[in-house]
Structure formats: structure tokens, C-alpha cells
Amino acid sequence: MATPKRTGRAPKADTSDTPSALVVKGLGAEDIAALEGELARRRASLTGGATLSRNNLVVALIREALAPKGGAP
Hints:
Layout: H1 29-45, H2 54-66
């Protein structure tokens, strides 16, 4: 018995609100230790039972690094 043909592709998801995945390669032991230290510092400053994941930390660090630095380029 022949398998039925597909009728088409599923519509693409709207990427404007879809979170993206980014894999960071090339981090060494020192980099990871620095990230863990920063994570511990930021977690210690949180109040009210808030938490912070490693992924949230990496996103925050990238956003901080890419933020406009005041003044014209």
C-alpha cells in the first residue's frame, strides 16, 4: 500500500515573538567559573524569592554589553 502524499507544509511560526536558541561555544573553565561567580552575586542581591537562571544571566550580560553607551558613535 502506498503512503499518502503530504498536502503541504505547516505555516511558519511568527518569529517576532518566538524566543531564539543560542549556543555559546568556546567557554573555558575560567569563563564558566566567572559566570558562576556573577550568577552567585546577582542571586544574592535578589529579594522576595526571585531567582535567576544561567541562561537569564547570559542574556542579561549580552544585553548590557550591547546597550548603547550614551553619546554619539
